[in-house]
């Protein structure tokens, strides 16, 4: 994404205009025609199918099973599944576009899809055996099973490798014990990418990764969390009590689970960034509509310079977040290192979304504090964006470590 400005040895002038034009074209973020059609299709679906039911799903804390079935029929549950396993594998930028558009209508639905595609399906596609891929990926792509990802524990959040849960090999099975926390879709998912410690000496940071089905004896959803927002995305605590997992469901090499988790989170953070962008865009558009309708002091609220400045800032933050996210996606699609940029996108977009919804509520005034208005829900939904899949502080650590290596 850099432009190379070369000088001739004699004249110290720029290269030809044709050469410079070629370099500038490499920086073009214009969506392809296929991506524009995808964006239009998902936006249309979100407006007609998701938006009309989003409020009722949130108020009743109802998981969006019917919407997931419809999205599965559109191929949106197989976006990271190769065609040979029945999927509709997309480039990263297209994935980001889909999640952004879904989040404009329902941030809760967007995170469910993000976890299923970017953390469950992708992990199996990247690290699974052929048998594991054949067993789980076709079902996941068709929406026959929903996937989840379970790394966090009550005493292991940002310190993600300090797991207290244990897994011990016994013949053809692994016996798992422990508690897993904050599992997105935990009460509704059929299968989980689940990480445990090895059961070695205290302080060991080695992890094992498994594909764990909810039907296994000893697997129990012990609690559904009462959260501030994202109410239709059900988040659960899971208890493992001598849960016997077939050895064939072990992912990767023994003790190498941490590298699997960190690799997949580098990718999935783009999903949270896209969710943040979609939420911010929704808050921005809602604020503009409200400001053009609401009157104060005998004029439209939108005519006040203070309101115009807030709208300008909201739009700028949203657009900057969008292009950081698109850049990270573009780097991955071109086979370039993207971990730093993914963290940058997640950090900036999640914090930008929180700034945007704050200003959106200010524009709405007292009405923004009412549950009758969308902004109240978006304000609550936005708060978790700086927390899950790595807090803002963790993102800053990742960014800094990468920069210190590069320079």
Q: How would you concisely characterize the structure shown here?
A:
The model is unreliable at 1-25 (pLDDT under 50).
Helix percent reads 40-55%
Rg is 23 Å
Number of domains: 3
What is the 3D form? Answer: globular
C-alpha end-to-end distance? 18 Å
> What is the helix/strand order?
HHHHHHEEEEEEEEHEEHHHH
For the record, the CATH architecture of the largest domain stands as: Up-down Bundle
Keywords:
Butyryl-CoA Dehydrogenase, subunit A, domain 2; 407 residues; four-stranded mixed sheet; single chain; Butyryl-Coa Dehydrogenase, subunit A, domain 1; 3 domains; disordered N terminus; alpha+beta; four-stranded antiparallel sheet; Butyryl-CoA Dehydrogenase, subunit A, domain 3
Topology:
Blueprint: H1 17-25, H2 33-60, H3 65-73, H4 92-105, H5 107-127, H6 130-142, E1 147-150, E2 166-170, E3 173-184, E4 191-197, E5 207-213, E6 219-224, E7 235-246, E8 250-251, H7 257-293, E9 295-296, E10 299-300, H8 305-333, H9 339-364, H10 374-382, H11 392-406
Parallel strand pairs: 1-4
Antiparallel strand pairs: 2-3, 3-7, 4-5, 5-8, 6-7, 9-10
Helix pairs in contact: 2-4, 4-5, 4-7, 5-6, 5-7, 7-8, 7-9, 7-10, 8-9, 9-10, 9-11
